[in-house]
Every structure is written in structure tokens, then in C-alpha cells.
Design goal:
Belongs to the peptidase S1 family. CLIP subfamily. The protein is of the alpha+beta class. The protein has three domains: 33 residues, no CATH class; 91 residues, Thrombin, subunit H (Beta Barrel); 104 residues, Beta Barrel (Thrombin, subunit H), CATH 2.40.10. It is built from four helices and 15 strands. The strands form three sheets. It has a seven-stranded antiparallel sheet. A six-stranded antiparallel sheet has the order 5-4-3-6-7-8, with no helix packed on it. Strands 1-2 form a two-stranded antiparallel ribbon. The protein is globular, with a radius of gyration of 19 Å.
Length: 296
């Protein structure tokens, strides 16, 4: 298995073997305690490692996008939105996906996150999904924490956080969105995680395109980023999911699926929350929990 898969499973490496330089022979004792995802300060080395790809756009492979999370209404497992795994304690989604759950009220039922999901129509997958409930964080009125720390697995991994100017529209970028939403405006929701390659738009060009829909007074905020092309777009059911782009073999979450006009219409991009614009707030919230946990 891969070196980090061995280590985070509580295993011991006793030789290097296999087809890649990072493949190892691993011994995992029956009573081994899995190790949590590495601290935030080290994530640049371990985050955003994508799984195998069949090179066929439209449908993902199992564990190909291991940070993609399904957000469920806990009492009935009702699918709400997509989300992404930031670290062992936190997932990230769009505000409109959870605003009905704020302020948190135990009587309304908890939110649940489903990690490592692929085909929602079956439970017979070789890599099982993992369900964890959430509770409202006292750190901020806009966040929820997972009930316990997440353990890294072949189908569960954290996504990387971008830095300013990592991905500039107009330059070559390899970016994808993922989700179980509709493939187009008339189709049913997908039962298998789908993937769509999308181009990034310059904000000025995006604003001009959206003014044709919303009127000349519309202003696109700088906390948004646009992506998509005709036939390549997020759709109903994809909200809250990640827009990720590749750099040096790692995948960084550039946006959160927010809203759009139809699905994949000509000259009508989708609008995403720009993750980098909230980097300081995200770091403050996630690192506070990590610090509190390490000193508990």
C-alpha cells in the first residue's frame, strides 16, 4: 500500500515494494489505533492527492475525489448538498445549505456528513463510506464541527487550500467540479459521483455575462469566482460541492458551488464562493479546534 495509507492506518512499514516509489509492505496489528489526518501545518505535503482516473470525463472513479463529502439531514439521511473535507475536524459547504440549521436546535435533528461515498444506490462497495454527525460550533455562528476526528483512508482525504494567484483565469488551469447533481436541466440526479472539467472565467467577463441575466446594475462580488462553459457546468444537487484545480500533483479547492442560471447554458457561467477570499477565517476556525483538541 501507499506509505501514508500504512502510517495513518496505524501500521508499521517494514520494506519498500510495489510499483511506485511510495509503495510499502505494511504490517497492521489487529488492535492498531488509526492515526488522524496530519496537522494543518503539514497538509501541504499530504493534502489533495487524487485517486486513479479512467480519463473519461463525466463519471468519477471510486475514491478518485476522496475529499468530496455528502451533507445529509441526520434524522432521515436526506441529501442536502455537497461539501469537502478540510481537515480531520472540519468540512466546508455553501452557507445556503445549512442556514436552516442555524441557530442549531437539537429538536430539528443534526446534520450528518458522509465521507468516502461514491455510488449512492448501493452499500456493497469495496470501499465503505463513513457517516459522522455534526454539532454546532461555539467558535462561530456559521460553522459546524464533526463529532470526532476523521481518519485518513484510501477513499477519505483532505483537499488543499489555495493561495492568492495560484490559479489565474485565462491561463492554463486543470479544474473540475464533482457532485451527485443533475447532468443537465432535464435529467435525473446522478447516483454515481460525476466529474466535470470547467474553465475559470475572469471576473469582469463573468460580471458582463451575468448582467445580461440580472440587469446592468448587477455587480459580482470579489468573494466570488466563475467557471463553466456550454454543456460543462454544475446543476441542481451539486450546491456546496468543491471546485478544485491541480497544481504540482496536488488538488486545491478554489471555489464552492453557489448558484447558476440553468445548467451549462451558452455564455452563462456558474458562480462559486472564492475560497481564497475566506482563507484567514477558515484558518482561524480550523486551527482553533486543532489547538483545543491537542491540549484537551
Amino acid at each position: 500500500m501507499e506509505y501514508w495509507t500504512c502510517i495513518t492506518s496505524g501500521g508499521q512499514v517494514y520494506s519498500y515494494c510495489g510499483l511506485s516509489a511510495s509503495s510499502v509492505c505494511c504490517f497492521v496489528a489487529l488492535n492498531a489505533k488509526p492515526v488522524g489526518i496530519l496537522p494543518v501545518s503539514n497538509r501541504v505535503k499530504t493534502c489533495g492527492k487524487k485517486g486513479a482516473d479512467n480519463a473519461k470525463d463525466g463519471q468519477a472513479e471510486m475514491s478518485e475525489w476522496p475529499w468530496h463529502v455528502a451533507l445529509l439531514e441526520g434524522s432521515e439521511d436526506l441529501y442536502l448538498c455537497g461539501a469537502s473535507l478540510l481537515d480531520e475536524w472540519w468540512v466546508m459547504t455553501a452557507a445556503h445549505c445549512v442556514d436552516e440549521y442555524l441557530p442549531y436546535d437539537a429538536a430539528t435533528g443534526s446534520l450528518k456528513v458522509r465521507l468516502g461515498e461514491y455510488d449512492v444506490s448501493t452499500t456493497a462497495e469495496p470501499l465503505k463510506h463513513e457517516d459522522l454527525t455534526t454539532y454546532h460550533s461555539l467558535t462561530t455562528s456559521l460553522s459546524f464541527q464533526i463529532e470526532r476526528s476523521v481518519k485518513q483512508k484510501p477513499n477519505i482525504e483532505v483537499v488543499c487550500m489555495p493561495k492568492a494567484n495560484d490559479f489565474v483565469p485565462g491561463k492554463p488551469n486543470k479544474c473540475y467540479i464533482t457532485g451527485w447533481g443533475r447532468k443537465d436541466e432535464v435529467s435525473e440526479h446522478s447516483v454515481v459521483l460525476k466529474e466535470i472539467k470547467v474553465p475559470l472565467w475572469d471576473n469582469r467577463e463573468c460580471q458582463n455575462a451575468l448582467k445580461l441575466q440580472f440587469g446592468t446594475s448587477y455587480n459580482l462580488p470579489n468573494t466570488a469566482i466563475c467557471a463553466g462553459s456550454e454543456g460543462n457546468d454544475a446543476c441542481d444537487g451539486d450546491g456546496g460541492g468543491p471546485l478544485v484545480c491541480e497544481k504540482d500533483g496536488h488538488w486545491y479547492q478554489v471555489g464552492i458551488i453557489s448558484f447558476g442560471i440553468g445548467c451549462g447554458r451558452k455564455n452563462t457561467p456558474g458562480v462559486y464562493t472564492r475560497v481564497e477570499a475566506f482563507k484567514d477565517w477558515i484558518q482561524e476556525v480550523t486551527q482553533k479546534k486543532s489547538h483545543d483538541h491537542n491540549h484537551a
